[in-house]
Prior knowledge:
Elements: H1 2-21, E1 25-27, E2 39-42, E3 53-59, E4 62-78, E5 81-95, E6 101-104, E7 120-125, E8 132-137, E9 147-153, E10 158-165, E11 191-195
Parallel strand pairs: 1-2, 2-5
Antiparallel strand pairs: 3-4, 3-11, 4-5, 5-6, 5-7, 7-8, 8-9, 9-10, 10-11
Amino acid sequence: MKNIIKFKFIILFLLGIISCKSQQVYPLNASAFRTPTNSYFKDLNNELDPYIGTWKGTFQGNTTTLIITKELKRSYEMFGKNFFEDVLIIKYEVKDTNGNILQTSLNAVYPTGGSVKYLIISTGTNRDSNNEVNLAYAGGNCGAGGGEIKFQKISNTQFYWSYYPGVTTRNDVTCPPNLDYHIYLPETENLVFTKQ
């Protein structure tokens, strides 16, 4: 009798481990709407890899440097469910013609559920079958400049940058007037960034 109970316990324990380990894996562009909790949207085809590295572009005299890394299995919540996704995290620095830093996020840390100021993160790939990566920009102070960014690969060493800031409103209580609300990222379409 003891052996039967012990055997049943071992079977239940192993089944528990297997069910905890099982996770549905989907490609990056799959919809989270009808997928189960804890689904993993994985970069199965390495679509994000060509963008990893250091890139530079110049617009209206300012030079923007992008440091792009890939984070595997970053967690997020949507539709009241938890998910995981491989994403690009972009840190940047904008300098004027004299080399003065206008804005930087190079030292920022973006833990899941933490601060998002200046965060640029990928949200999908090739939605229009045009070799693009779609990104969301959280914006600067009080979300100023937050919007959508698109990267479109030109070659292994260049991509187009298109940035579309959204409309943000602020109030003087939570967003005091003494903060910088200027948008420093290049607000344009098809700006060429070159790998360094």
